Amino acid sequence: MAAPISRPHVFVKGTEAGLTFFLSEESSFGELRDELRRKVREAQGRFSSGPPVPVVLHLGRRRFSSEREEELIRILEEGGSFRVREIRADVFPEEECTAFGARSAQVYLGPVRSGEHVAATGDLLVVGDVHGGAKVEGREAVYVLGRLAGEARVREATGIVVAGSLRAALLVIGDLHLAGADIPEEYRDLPGFAVQVGGEVAVFPYREFRRLRMRGPEGLRPEA
């Protein structure tokens, strides 16, 4: 009887900007840590000369504690061959959901599939993906803890759409909308949010959320 084929816990993909390490969502932290350490040792010989290779660490649809994420960074950067420039995940940590105000939202356990329309009288929190052809709607906010590929609508002009990946077909905030084709390509696979700024719907990477909280939507305008 043939032995079962074991799936890798860590998958490495080369890009023009460096390397991306994808961590399996089905593996335990110990399995990920051990295989990541082994793959780093195997790869260091190929990248020992020259400057450190930029690395993106992709956690999938989960997050670890800051201590565990720092441990993974240390493993990657041991030996000096790699430099972690970004940690990506298709969900937001619990404390960030609290900052968004998502704790008070109506929760829908996804995914939301094509043809489905999920609407909340207040704010909406979708735990899962929103597939293409699906619609989600809330009063002042829609939070998608996963990939947003369908349509998201908030009824208030001061509202916000937040997602782990903004490949939306359509974003509607108040009376304004942004077609998916007009979402900047560099933001589509990153956690981000959309708000009204200067009479239009605009998309921003999640790192700009602190500026939104401190200064409001007008604070997101480029400085002259």
Automatic annotation (TrEMBL):
Q: Which residues form the Septum site-determining protein MinC N-terminal domain?
A: 10-87
Q: SUPFAM superfamilies, alphabetically?
A: Cell-division inhibitor MinC, C-terminal domain (SSF63848)
Keywords from the named record: Cell cycle, Cell division, Septation
Septum formation inhibitor MinC C-terminal domain spans which residues?
Answer: 109-180
Q: GO annotations under biological process?
A: cell morphogenesis; division septum assembly; regulation of cell septum assembly
Q: Does the keyword Ligase apply?
A: no
- Pfam families, alphabetically? MinC_C, MinC_N_1
| InterPro entries membership | CAP/MinC_C (IPR016098), MinC (IPR013033), MinC_C_sf (IPR036145), MinC_N_1 (IPR055219), Septum_form_inhib_MinC_C (IPR005526)
Subunit and interaction comment:
Interacts with MinD and FtsZ.
Sequence similarity: Belongs to the MinC family.
This protein is called Septum site-determining protein MinC
